[in-house]
Write a structure and sequence with these properties.
Layout: H1 2-10, E1 32-35, H2 45-50, E2 59-66, H3 67-72, H4 76-85, E3 91-93, E4 98-100, H5 111-122, E5 130-135, H6 137-149, E6 155-160, H7 163-169, E7 174-179, E8 182-189, E9 194-198, H8 207-224, H9 226-234, H10 236-240, H11 244-264, H12 281-290, H13 297-314, H14 320-332, H15 355-364, E10 370-373, E11 379-382, H16 387-398
Parallel strand pairs: 1-9, 2-3, 2-4, 2-5, 5-6, 6-9
Antiparallel strand pairs: 7-8, 10-11
The structure holds nicotinamide-adenine-dinucleotide (NAD) and zinc ion (ZN).
């Protein structure tokens, strides 16, 4: 009785006196590790991570692998099995590692989510069991959604194996699938149990997927970190030619900026209308959809940033030298700034990419909020995007298509 009265007082406003205001705070915490040779016998990181919040007795574990990863690392299934076979006193593998499709097809609709949920049900995993996903951002997004739904959420360890997943997709709190013709239409916010990025996996990435993560690094640098932007410009050539040290630094810095934003940005579960880390993404998501996912997420992000940066230059937010330094660095990295799918038009003759603005608004909710760079390392938000300026940006970028490589 006393609690109810206390709460009635804190409900304030006095509009109603029969309200019981429910309020509590939940703290989230998860480690993000960077390593090499995760499954090497001498590396005890995974032991350490899985023992976090140790429970008594043997813990049930199920591992899922990205098919593209397994094709590049044929010994992967055996290595994982061997690792758990050596620790049967502490972990019980629910079954052999399961292989899931890799790439955006993993995220197409509910098919694979349903299959993973059925598997987890058949294996009788409980809420203390650990599910480990090893693969690219798309497979982890889909698996994370399935895992967050079973028993309202199992413990999920992400082991990202692409540059983009290590520096962005796998370190945050989101997962999801593409549905109803919209990128990331269905998904949940769910913090992982832990994240472990092993740089060794990056060696086998295709040129497209090697450089994809660098687009997300430019994204955060442009709107948040001038020094990181300078670093990326200086190392653009090295990144393009697969310099592992430059990539290591890029991934760590980019991941850290994402993590800091989630922790300190005041809106980890994105309840507001603004989403600063989605600079360039209204166009990027639409480019992915229009191209039938021929254009990868990183490449689409590079094009989206190029469009919005040209737009920012037209409105005086960015100087011409600042804009040119971004375009020069992106093209040096062999990231695209234009793609033929931008030419596609709807039945009214409008560029199909423009529909990305409304999809973006709908996805975020509230009024349209687009983040634009304001100089290098800072940002501002606008609520109206002018079609003529977008048109002008796309036309200007088309003229540099000679350097448009590896959009797919
Ligand atoms: N959840 C988030 O917050 C978030 C953030 C950014 C991006 N994303 C999503 O991430 C996805 C893109 O992820 P991505 O860039 O990692 O691409 P991806 O997951 O599509 O992987 C690209 C390809 O690389 C293969 N692959 C994975 N690891 C490999 C390895 N080590 N060697 C060789 N091949 C390997 C995959 O099988 C796939 O064919 C998009 O769907 C995007 O929407 C999610
Ligand atoms: Zn992105």
């Amino acid at each position: 009785m006393r609690d109810l009265q206390t709460n009635q007082r804190t409900a304030r406003g006095g509009e109603r006196d029969d309200v019981y205001l429910q309020r509590f705070t939940v703290e989230f915490e998860y480690p993000v590790h960077f390593t090499h040779g995760l499954f090497d016998p001498a590396n005890d990181l995974l032991d350490h991570v899985l023992d976090r919040r140790g429970v008594d007795g043997v813990r049930k574990v199920q591992v899922f692998l990205d098919r593209g990863l397994v094709q590049a690392w044929p010994d992967m299934t055996r290595a994982v099995k061997r690792w758990f076979d050596d620790r049967t006193d502490r972990f019980q593998s629910a079954s052999m590692p399961r292989i899931l499709p890799g790439g955006e097809t993993a995220k197409h609709g509910w098919k694979h989510v349903g299959a993973v949920m059925r598997t987890l049900g058949r294996l009788h995993l409980d809420r203390h069991a650990l599910v480990i996903g090893i693969g690219g951002g798309a497979m982890l997004d889909m698996l994370g959604l399935a895992v967050s739904l079973v028993h309202r959420g199992l413990r999920f360890v992400r082991i990202p194996t692409t540059t983009l997943a290590q520096c962005d997709a796998a370190v945050g709190v989101k997962n999801g699938i593409d549905a109803h013709g919209m990128k990331n239409f269905a998904g949940t916010f769910a913090a992982p149990f832990a994240v472990i990025a092993d740089f060794d996996f990056l060696r086998t990435l295709s040129p497209r997927d090697w450089i994809g993560g660098v687009a997300e690094a430019f994204k955060v640098a442009m709107i948040k970190d001038t020094r990181f932007f300078d670093f990326l410009c200086e190392h653009a050539g090295a990144l393009a030619t697969r310099d592992a040290t430059a990539m290591d630094r890029t991934i760590r810095q980019c991941a850290t900026i994402h993590l800091d934003h989630i922790r300190l940005g005041g809106d980890p579960f994105e309840t507001g209308s603004a989403r600063p880390l989605d600079f360039g993404h209204w166009a990027a998501h639409q480019i992915e959809c229009i191209s039938g996912y021929r254009v990868g997420h990183g490449q689409a992000t590079a094009i989206g940033m190029a469009i919005d940066s040209h737009y920012a230059m037209q409105t005086g937010l960015l100087s011409a030298p600042e804009y040119e330094s971004l375009i020069r660095a992106l093209t040096t990295c062999e990231l695209p700034v234009w793609d033929p799918c931008l030419e596609e038009r709807n039945e009214h003759g409008q560029r199909r990419v423009l529909a990305g603005l409304e999809s973006f608004r709908e996805h975020l909710g509230g009024k349209l909020t687009v983040t634009l760079p304001q100089g290098i390392g800072a940002r501002c938000e606008v609520h109206v995007m002018d079609d003529d300026r977008i048109e002008c940006a796309i036309k200007a970028l088309e003229t540099i298509t000679g350097r448009t490589v590896r959009s797919s």
